[in-house]
Amino acid sequence: MTTILVTGGAGYIGSHACKALKAAGYTPVTYDNLVTGWRDAVKFGPFEQGDLLDRARLDQVFATHKPAAVMHFAALSQVGEAMAEPGRYWRNNVEGSLTLIEAAVAAGCLDFVFSSTCATYGEHDNVVLDENTPQAPLNAYGASKRAIEDILRDFEAAHGLRHVIFRYFNVAGADPEAEVGEHHRPETHLVPLMLEAIDGQRDALTVFGTDYDTPDGTCIRDYVHVCDLVDAHVLGLGWLEQDKGSRVFNLGTGSGFSVREVIDHSRSVTNRDVPYVVGPRRGGDCTKLVSGSVRAEQELGWTPARSNLSTMIEDAWRWHRTGHYES
């Protein structure tokens, strides 16, 4: 079985990717420092604990497992934190990724699937964002991801490092079988925060800003199911295996939902009220982010089959009630 090194494989998206890789016939090897990931989420292949900044440890892992490709999810990813601590984001995300890329090239592992973000685009109100939209990130998170994209292009020119870059939008939902799910320390994502409020695990959800230039005053995001997202990553791996060249793909649905609309759907799915309070806007938040994902659908054959809002909330609710990590 072909081995794939999955950085951040103990995290939310990485753990779902490992399950999808195993189902597709690969052996996923998780590389994670467990700062934000969970050991209990590593269920589908070997685990190697280590940090992206530790070149010697990375070299050891490449030598031991001889992966055919890297699927790189590991990163700091909170917008508010990135606004407050930009140096931490540049050091962890960019220097860590550069160390990983250099280790991969040294090991002769020249296929690389990278988890980027729509945050590289910045704010383009009332525009559907496609892969040619100018990139103008508003914070160190988006800027660090854009920098890594540039590094990948430079390493392709110098060393032949083939890559697929996925810029994705708001990820939600969970494994329908509840083997893995979304659990952050601390939690910052809308859907799990909302479910915690519904379930009485927190007093209320905070809605950050109701004065955006949108129909109901709350910001709009394009939500994509985590299982659809990782299916695209497996397709991206196949793209590289077929030697189709490096490519950038957006991953979203082309439909945006406001925070109030997400609350309304959650009320319908769970048959429970959603307690919430209104807070001020957060720095770095855009008014509206909606994806144009035609390229992924046409070239990769990707279909976001589970990415309707009700299904995403249903799957997240199932994980919230039945799944958990202890370590």
What does this structure look like?
It is a single chain. With 327 residues, the chain is α/β, with parallel strands linked by helices. The protein folds into two domains: 3-172 and 223-251, NAD(P)-binding Rossmann-like Domain (Rossmann fold), CATH 3.40.50; 190-221 and 254-322, Alpha-Beta Complex (UDP-galactose 4-epimerase, domain 1). It is built from ten helices and 14 strands. The chain has helices at 12-23, 55-65, 79-84, 86-106, 140-159, 190-198, 226-241, 259-270, 294-300, 309-322, and strands spanning 3-7, 27-32, 47-49, 69-72, 111-117, 162-168, 170-172, 205-208, 220-221, 223-225, 247-251, 257-258, 276-279, 288-289. The strands form four sheets. A seven-stranded parallel sheet has the order 3-2-1-4-5-6-11, sandwiched between helices. Helix 1 (12-23) links the parallel strand 1 and strand 2. The longest helix has 21 residues, at 86-106.
Helices and strands in order:
Blueprint: E1 3-7, H1 12-23, E2 27-32, E3 47-49, H2 55-65, E4 69-72, H3 79-84, H4 86-106, E5 111-117, H5 140-159, E6 162-168, E7 170-172, H6 190-198, E8 205-208, E9 220-221, E10 223-225, H7 226-241, E11 247-251, E12 257-258, H8 259-270, E13 276-279, E14 288-289, H9 294-300, H10 309-322
Parallel strand pairs: 1-2, 1-4, 2-3, 4-5, 5-6, 6-11, 7-10, 8-13, 9-14
Antiparallel strand pairs: 9-12
Helix pairs in contact: 1-7, 2-4, 4-5, 6-8, 6-10, 8-10
